[in-house]
Amino acid sequence: MIQPTILLTRGAVLDTFRLVGEYPHIETSWGVAGIVFPEVDNFALITNIILPSSKEVSRGFSVTTIGGSHLATCVAWLQKQYPLIRPMAGNSPAFYANTEYMFFSKGHSHHVLGLKQQSRTDEQSTMESVTVDGLSIAIAPLANIVSNPDEEISTNLFESCLSIRRNLKIELRLYFYNRTMANLRMPRPILVTPTVIDDVYAPKVPMTSWHLDSQGEYLSQIRQLATYGCRTKTINKVNSTNNGLNLQLMIEHPMWSGVLMITTSDTYPNTRPDLKIVDLKKPTGLRVQYHQENPKLKVGDVWSRGDTLLDIVMKHEARGLL
């Protein structure tokens, strides 16, 4: 068997350490995803971790579980968007031209139990990702906090401030299993040493969109629009500023002369959306009838923090903009 080559972005490492550090006295879990070449099961690049939904993860003193629809929905959405993501490969776009985005397995922490290797249950779960779930490659990280998360608080009288220092050391191990190993009936995953690369050399996988992280609320708002008589189309667009993926909603109503275009970033609803009214019947370049930067309107006239999509629609209607 050929020894696998596993790459790991620095961003994925730091995100893992931040998550584990949030739970120093209990265990936690997360999803692991990245890039493979089709039909090659001994190379993988871990680009990002997927944070669990608070409703679908349980954390305890000596056990943690993760699952549910949120993780699967996020992976499916990122896979669908990968053709948009792939060109954002920094210094090496050509290298990733024929790659695919996939879910690798689940990572978890074990420091409370004091185990520095997978348990037999962990091994079985990693192997079943291939033999039962059908993955070509399974990579299961295991994290351990190996030094006490002691906090040192000191006072700087000269600058009238408190200084807080937290010493925390975390070890991360990656366990690997693939189709070749399954065909050879190898009894357990193997421990691999990854190569950490700078994020600039890999496609920048964005955070999942707000409509996935708050899917119930999003679907409720879409139903509100439908009840109001609106038709809504959605597309995803690359944000040229931060390489994130924006969600664009094109909202129509039989009584309107234009289309309300609401473009949200992955930080929405904490940041305001981009708002435009477009007349699709006019030639390109003359279609935009209104933009949120209109000096005659204040931002609060058409959007305020906490507004639903229907609130935005009704504010535009109330001002005769549609």
TrEMBL record:
Superkingdom field: Bacteria
Record-given protein name: Uncharacterized protein
